[in-house]
Amino acid sequence: MSARIRLLRADTQVRLLRADTQVRLLRADTQVRPSYGWNMPWNLTSTHAGPGDLALLVGLRHKHFIFPLIPGGTFHTHRGILRHDDLIGKPWGSQVFSHQGSPFFLLQPSLADILTDLPRHTQIMYPKDIGFILTNLSVGPGQRVLEAGTGSGSMTVALAYLVGPSGRVVSYEIRPEFQKLARKNLERLGLEARVELKLGDIRDGFSETDMDAMFLDVANPWDYIPQVRAALKPGGFYCSLLPTFNQVEQLLVTLRREGFAFIEVCELLLRYYKPEPSRLRPTDRMVAHTGYLIFGRRIEPRQDERARDLLEEQGGESETEKPGADGGQI
Questions:
Q1: End-to-end C-alpha distance for the chain, whole angstroms
Q2: SS3 state at 226
Q3: Are 104 and 96 in contact (CB under 8 A)?
């Protein structure tokens, strides 16, 4: 009898392991499969959760989980198990409960939720910076955008989301392991068809020309500004993010020398407030300095004295670059 009990236990353990493995495989499989005819797994225009939709569960203490809804699937948390079939068909914003009775809100994940939840090898960019960059680069449907320094793909995902099915993102990365993770992140979200990932050293230049915008995320962008200029269309938008003053100074000199103007430098500080009407005040933490944003546009300057004041006003020429700035007569 003792032997039979041990065998039953062993058999039970095997069956449990198999069941658990099936759940893990299901999750892994659904993460890389586009959902049921949608271009992207998260459908922000629906009113109810549907099969294949990307769902966000928010529990106590702001614990949150993002996963695709698969008929017959289950989602395991430290606060209990939720059956996907119980979630599918519910209005977004519904309160749901695990088998232990723990409460959750069922929501559609925002782009910010997606970006902060991405698996990563590198430091990701914060949504506060990404949003400002995207608007200043004027990224929108149908555009062709160039990126260098793919990293884990957070900016790549945001760019692909905004250019839409008719747009195109080309992203260069020199490290194969980073590109591999970025590709997985794009596939997980069903965005891989909008992006061309290239492996190589941008010192050799870009094969693309007349691109609408460029985001250059490398430590020494001043070394690649001639290549950037050759890839951008006339009037095209440029941006880099750098952590230190010294880097910004070097980049500014190079941008002016290589025919860029409308140059701006800024940083964004994000402070949240406690949303309590009777005691509204800042939260204890804030997202402060994450980097300096440098923007510019490719221009076609002419050697015409009549345009000098305008060129200087728009950041295309500094005081030290003006004739006579060394103390001589202009």
A1: 105
A2: helix
A3: yes
**Residue 105 near residue 94, CB atoms below 8 Å:** yes
Mean pLDDT of the chain: 84
Q: Would you place residue 123 in the very low, low, confident or very high pLDDT band (cuts 50, 70, 90)?
A: confident
Neighbours of 218 (CB within 10 A): 16
SS3 state of residue 10 = helix
Query: Which amino acid does the sequence have at 290?
Result: T
d(CA 66, CA 58): 9
Residue in 64, 66, 73, 63 with CA at minimum distance from that of residue 24: 73
Note whether 30-109 and 113-299 share their fold: no
Instruction: Give CA–CA dist 105/97, Å, rounded.
Output: 9
CA distance 203 to 22: 46
> Band of the pLDDT at 232, cuts 50, 70, 90?
very high
Q: Please check whether residue 202 is in contact with residue 148, taking contact to mean a CB–CB distance below 8 angstroms.
A: yes
Count how many residues are written for the chain. 330
pTM for this entry: 0.80
Q: Where are the domains of the chain?
A: 30-109, 113-299
pLDDT at 163: 97
CA distance 308 to 316: 9
Element (H, E) at 65: strand 64-68
Contact (CB, 8 A) for 53 and 42: yes
Lowest-pLDDT range of 67-71, 121-125, 179-183: 121-125
pLDDT, tens only, 213-230: 999 999 999 999 999 999
200, 203, 207, 212 alpha-carbon torsion, rounded to 10°:
110
Mean per-residue pLDDT, 86-110 = 96
Of 31, 189, 45, residue with least CA distance to 108: 45
Is 30-109 CATH 3.90.1150.10? Answer: no
Residues 6 or more apart whose CB falls under 8 angstroms from that of 321 comprise 256
- Tell me: domain 113-299, CATH 3.40.50.150, correct? yes
